[in-house]
Structure formats: structure tokens, C-alpha cells
Amino acid sequence: MSSLQEQLLKAGLVDKNKLKMAEKEKQKRSNQSRKAAGKSGARKVDPKKAAAEKRHAERVARDRALNEKRKQALEQKAIAAQVKQLIETNKVDRSKGEIPYSFVYRKKIKKIFIGETEKSLLTGGRLAIVTTVVNNEGRRFELVPMEVARKIAERDAETVIELNDEDTTTSAEDDPYADYKIPDDLTW
Predict the structure, then answer these.
(1) Dist. CA 66–CA 108, nearest whole Å
(2) Domain containing 74: what range?
(3) How many distinct structural domains can be found in the chain?
(4) What is the pLDDT of residues 18-77, one digit of tens each?
(5) Is the CB of residue 158 less than 8 Å from the CB of residue 79?
(6) Is residue 5 part of a domain?
(7) Where are the beta strands (DSSP E) in 9-107?
(8) d(Cα 116, Cα 134) in Å, to the nearest integer?
(9) How far apart, in whole angstroms, are the C-alpha atoms of residue 90 and residue 150?
(10) Residue 118 contacts residue 94 (beta carbons within 8 Å)
(11) Residue 156 scores a pLDDT above 90
């Protein structure tokens, strides 16, 4: 099967010169369109390459998010280890405690046994109650000095349960019950 140009030439409708002129004109137009496309910066976008770049960008973003999660988990683990070490090294010995001391922990009343000196220090704002997890089984409550409790609260505020600051007590002028004496042996 021959081309249209050859068929027109055989039929005598066109001559060789006109065919050459048409071919040159066609070449000129295609060259001009190629040059114009190159100057305007318009390039052909390969859809496969674009899809691959998109998948790569998504993978990089997902990897970044996973690395950030891992980093946060490691930081939380390090903070928990610091809190545990602070509690273990600074806890007050309560082995000879005979007096029950009650406090509220997560809307429940908990009780620990402490000595008379620990009770006076605790109510005076010199000691604080903190909690720690024991072998992933349950919670244990300990007494630590106030300075240590403040350091623990900076790292993990939920660990410190009772912090009796001397500054937070109401002044005697504002207290409507200042005239009433509270008995020393009152426990709840």
C-alpha cells in the first residue's frame, strides 16, 4: 500500500516539486513547534515517573512520622526511668509506720501507714506522696521530700499525688473557720 502522496502523483494531480515543497513546509512547522515547546519550558510529563515520585514522597512522610513516634516513645521511657530512679533513691522508710494516712487517688480513697514524724512532715508540707508502678502489676505509694516531688512533677505531674505546699494554705484572715480548733487526733 502506497502513501497518499504517491497515489496523487500517479493520478497526475500533483507533481514532484509540489510534493517536495509540502514536505519542506511540514518539516518547518514541526521544527518550529518543537522549538516553541522547548522555549516555553513545557515538557512532557511521564505519568509513571510522577506516580513513582508521589509514592516516594508519601513513603518519606510516613517514615518521618514513624521516626517521630519512636523518638517520643523513647523520651517518655527515659522520663519514666528518671522518675522511678528519683523515687527509689529518695523515698522515706515507712516500715515502722503505725498510723493510717488516707488520701484520694483517682477518685478512690487509698491508705498508707506512716509514723508520727512522717505524718507531721507530710501535713506540714515537707513530704509528698508519689506513686510508682511495680513490675507492671500495680501501683505502690511512697513518701519523698518536697524538693524531689517538685522535680518529679516537672517530669510527670500524674506521679505526684499529694503535695501539701505551705504557700497554698489559706491565710488566717480569710478563713471563716479560724476560730474553731481542729483536734490533733482527727483522722478520716
Answers:
(1) 37
(2) 49-168
(3) 1
(4) 888 888 888 888 888 777 766 655 556 788 888 899 999 999 999 999 999 999 999 999
(5) no
(6) no
(7) 99-105
(8) 26
(9) 13
(10) yes
(11) no
